[in-house]
Every structure is written in structure tokens, then in C-alpha cells.
Design brief:
It is built from 19 helices and five strands. By secondary structure, the chain is mainly alpha-helical. The protein folds into three domains: about 40 residues, no CATH class; about 190 residues, Orthogonal Bundle (Clc chloride channel); about 190 residues, Clc chloride channel (Orthogonal Bundle), CATH 1.10.3080.10. The longest helix has about 40 residues. The protein is globular. A hairpin with an 8-residue loop joins β1 and β2. The N terminus and C terminus are likely disordered.
Length: about 500
């Protein structure tokens, strides 16, 4: 067969181009001589050099960290002032039935376009490449302070993370960055928010990366997230924010018996994480049913009345921010009640179901530390050490963040606790299955098989509550749903 001159010239040009490519860029089959060859052209897309890319994100993430650090410091100081003023009144929580409804009204009626004021909504925004509005972040900051001031059981990390995502999103739009880069800026903001609010720069930054997807970490954002987290922590420190650390005083000597006790503790903390998540789901469904049968006012009123009853019957310790509930135990104090972690789970679930706004991580700290203090005498271990393990392990199981929880143990309690915290966190994480306090969290890792990837899914707890909110047979459906999660399973509930 004869080949024309034009085809010969074209083939020669193609051959020369192929010969100049690196060997790694060619994928040739068995019939290479017949031209069965593909070229990996992604290597030759014009991209900025590594140096300029590192410099770019160093500057941008530092800027995000500075702004978020200032916001974190302002929020924490405002919250401390509000709680200090509130503590002058012994029965400050008596107005919860009315205040929860007011907070719900402000959340729904004030600036109705700004509805993405929760961490779960921010996670959904980041995973779907959608921006976070500044107004939503402002609502989260204000409503969280109000919720915790009047006695609602909530945490302080969510508004800071939400504000960080909003700041990153706004800066990305001002700089006219691409959708991918805007997403990176939002992740940097979330990492900076978590790092600045708890004083844990490394684990806080990693938490913002790990909480988005179970089984996947965005390594391309790791460098700017760390820079943003460290910067935010330094800024909050310079602005006078004080953090509480509890170094554990024990020798890092390996002992078989203690290691086995840690394994048993990890199993227990995984069960506690499942319990905490299920209580949140059940309360959301139940109070939505109350709202449909009556009105949102009665939903908030009933929820607030129950919280008031808990505060009067047990202690105000289980209301509000609840920092004293685990700081005292970690410092060597006594346990207030062996049922404290159950009561705190109950009050937290009711607060959010009745209209409160705030974070979920701080209540998890309370539940984890209290459950560890309960377990310590049963295993014959030190109460403070087991409380520290429970604090991070329950977080790992409830939020599906074993890596950041393990590193958080080092930053809060010292390096000696590292191997034991890692074991407890991983066991709790594996046992919790697909449970998560964040319904928008994507899952791409099958904890049961440990080797087969799962189909990426997300669990929208609010949507699940809406589907189950029919007036007929609601409680039966709820208990059936709860029974499915007593043992971790991996079916896609969204397809049922």
C-alpha cells in the first residue's frame, strides 16, 4: 500500500512529537508497532511552577487565617462576656421556652435568604462548589451566642467555622478566583475557624479537611489549610484569647493490660458515639412531628420547658456551653453524675430540635469526657486519662475524623497519650459505621470491609426527618430507623 506525501509528512511530525515526550507519558499496548499508543496529556497542561503555587497559597491562606483569627477572637470574647453576665443570675435558663422560639424566628425570618448558617450546610456548600454568604456567617455568630447565653446546650466551633467559610468564599470572589480555588479558600476558612476556636492549630486545620469526606482527604488543600490554621491560632493568641490544656502526667511505658483496656474503651466510645448521633436524629424527628401537629411555637416551648426541668432537677451544668463539665474532670475533679453523658446528649438533641443554633463538637467533648470518667473505675484506670481518651474518641466516631482527633489528643493532653488515643479513635471510628452528626458528610470508605471502596453518598438527616414526618405511624418508623443503626450497616438509606 502506497502512502501519499501528505500523510507521510503528518506521520513524521507525529513521530517526532512522540519521541520528544518523556517515557512516563506514554502508555503503549502490545501492538505498539501498529500505533496502539495513548498519550497522557494532563502532564503537559500549562500550570504554574511549584514555587509560585506555594507562594500564592501561602499569601492567600495567611490572609484568610488573619481575618478568621480576628473574627474568632471577637466571637470568643463576646461569648465569654455574655456568659459572665448571665452567670450572675442563678436561674438564667428559666426563659428557655420563649427564647428558643425567638431564636428560631430570627433564624427563619431575619434575612430569609441566609439559611446556610450551620456547619452541616457549609459542608454541603463546599462539596457542591457553592459559595457561602457573609450574612449566613453573621447569623450563625449572633444566634449561637444567644443560644448559649440563655442556656441552650450547644458548642462554639460552628459559628467560627461557618464564618471562616464565608470569609474564604468572599475573598475568592473578590479576587475572581476559579470555582476550584474558591472551594480551597472556603476549606482554609473552615480549618482556620476550628483551629482558632479550640487552640489546636494542626488538628483544627486537619479537621476542616477530614470532615468533608469519609475516606478521602484533599491533599491539594493541606498546605494552605495548615497555614490558615496556624495563622488563625497565632492571631487569637496575640489578641488575648486563653486556651485550656490538660497535659497528662503518666510515663509512656507500654503495658499489655492497659493497651487491652484502651481497646475495650475504644469499643465503648464507639457505642457512645452511635448513641449520641441517634439521639440527635430521634429528637429532630420527634420535634418536627410536634411542630406539624401543633406549631413551631409549641415545639420550642415544649423543648425549652424540658431543658428547664433538666436544669432544675439535675444541674445547670448540662445546659449552655458546658465547658466546666469536662474541664473539671480533666483537671482531676470528681464526676458529677454517672449519667452525665446521657443527660448532656439529651439536652443537646432537644436544643437543636427545638430551634437552637450552635456547634456540636463542644457537646461531644462533654459526652466523651463524662463517659470516659464513668468507664475509668470499671477498668481500674486513671479517671483523667480515660476522660481524655473519651473526649477525642467519641469525636472520632461521631464526626468520622480519626486522624484529626488523634492529633488533637497530642495538642491538648501531651505526646505521651498519642498511641493510646490513636487506637481508641480508630476503633471508635470503625465501630460507628456510617453514623455522623453531619448529614452532608460524603462517605467513600466502607469501614466494614476495610478494602472495598463504598459508593460516595451523603446522608441528609433533615431530608430523612421530612420523609418520616407523617402523622401516622411516625414513632414506629422512628424506632425502626433507630434499630437499623444499633449495629453499623452500610446500605444506602437514600435509595430505600
Amino acid at each position: 500500500m502506497r502512502i501519499s506525501a501528505g500523510k507521510q509528512a503528518g506521520f513524521l511530525t507525529y513521530s517526532i512529537a512522540i519521541s520528544r515526550l518523556p517515557r512516563q507519558s506514554l502508555r503503549c499496548g502490545m501492538r505498539a508497532r501498529e500505533g496502539f499508543c495513548t498519550i497522557n496529556t494532563s502532564m503537559y497542561t500549562r500550570r504554574p511552577s511549584s514555587f509560585w503555587n506555594i507562594l500564592k497559597w501561602f499569601v492567600l491562606s495567611t490572609l484568610v487565617g488573619i481575618v478568621v483569627g480576628i473574627v474568632d477572637a471577637a466571637f470568643l470574647k463576646t461569648l465569654d462576656a455574655a456568659i459572665g453576665w448571665r452567670n450572675r443570675f442563678p436561674l438564667y435558663f428559666i426563659g428557655l421556652p420563649v427564647f428558643l422560639y425567638v431564636i428560631w424566628l430570627l433564624a427563619r425570618k431575619a434575612a430569609p435568604k441566609a439559611q446556610d448558617y450551620s456547619t452541616d450546610a457549609v459542608i454541603n456548600k463546599i462539596n457542591s462548589y457553592r459559595p457561602v454568604g457573609v450574612l449566613s456567617a453573621v447569623k450563625s455568630l449572633v444566634l449561637s451566642v444567644l443560644t448559649m447565653t440563655v442556656g441552650g446546650s450547644a458548642g462554639k466551633e460552628a459559628p467560627c467555622a461557618d464564618a471562616g467559610a464565608g470569609i474564604g468564599s468572599v475573598l475568592g470572589r473578590i479576587l475572581r478566583m476559579s470555582a476550584e480555588d474558591q472551594r480551597k479558600m472556603m476549606i482554609c476558612g473552615v480549618s482556620a475557624g476550628f483551629a482558632g476556636v479550640f487552640g489546636v492549630p494542626i488538628s483544627g486545620a486537619l479537621f476542616g479537611l477530614e470532615v468533608l469526606w469519609v475516606g478521602h482527604i484533599f491533599y491539594d488543600v493541606m498546605f494552605p489549610a495548615f497555614i490558615a490554621g496556624i495563622t488563625a491560632f497565632q492571631v487569637t493568641t496575640w489578641l488575648g484569647v486563653d486556651y485550656i490544656y490538660h497535659p497528662m502526667n503518666f510515663a509512656p511505658v507500654f503495658a499489655e493490660q492497659f493497651f487491652l483496656k484502651v481497646v475495650l474503651a475504644g469499643l465503648f466510645f464507639g457505642v457512645v458515639a452511635i448513641m449520641f448521633t441517634e439521639v440527635l436524629k430521634f429528637a429532630k424527628v420527634l420535634f418536627r412531628y410536634i411542630s406539624l401537629r401543633t406549631s413551631p411555637f409549641w415545639r420550642s416551648f415544649i423543648g425549652g420547658a424540658v431543658l428547664v426541668a433538666v436544669g432544675l432537677a439535675f444541674s445547670p451544668l448540662y445546659l449552655g456551653l458546658g465547658m466546666d463539665g469536662f474541664n473539671g474532670i480533666l483537671a482531676g475533679g470528681e464526676l458529677h453524675s454517672p449519667f452525665g453523658f446521657l443527660i448532656k446528649s439529651f439536652t443537646t438533641a432537644i436544643t437543636f430540635a427545638a430551634g437552637g443554633v450552635g456547634g456540636i463538637v463542644t457537646p461531644i467533648f462533654f459526652v466523651g469526657a463524662q463517659s470516659g470518667a464513668v468507664l475509668a473505675p470499671l477498668l481500674g484506670t486513671d479517671t483523667a486519662t480515660m476522660a481524655a481518651l473519651g473526649l477525642v474518641a467519641v469525636l472520632a466516631g461521631a464526626a468520622n475524623t480519626p486522624l484529626s482527633a488523634s492529633i488533637m489528643a497530642i495538642e491538648l493532653f501531651g505526646a505521651e497519650i498519642a498511641p493510646y488515643a490513636a487506637v481508641a479513635c480508630v476503633i471508635s471510628f470503625l465501630l460507628s459505621g456510617r453514623q455522623s452528626v453531619y448529614g452532608s458528610q460524603r462517605i467513600s470508605f466502607d469501614k466494614e470491609s476495610l478494602d472495598n471502596p463504598a459508593e460516595p453518598v451523603s446522608y441528609d438527616h433533615a431530608d430523612k426527618a421530612r420523609r418520616m414526618s407523617g402523622r401516622k405511624g411516625l414513632l414506629l418508623k422512628t424506632f425502626k430507623e433507630m434499630s437499623k443503626h444499633l449495629v453499623p450497616r452500610f446500605e444506602d438509606d437514600e435509595k430505600k
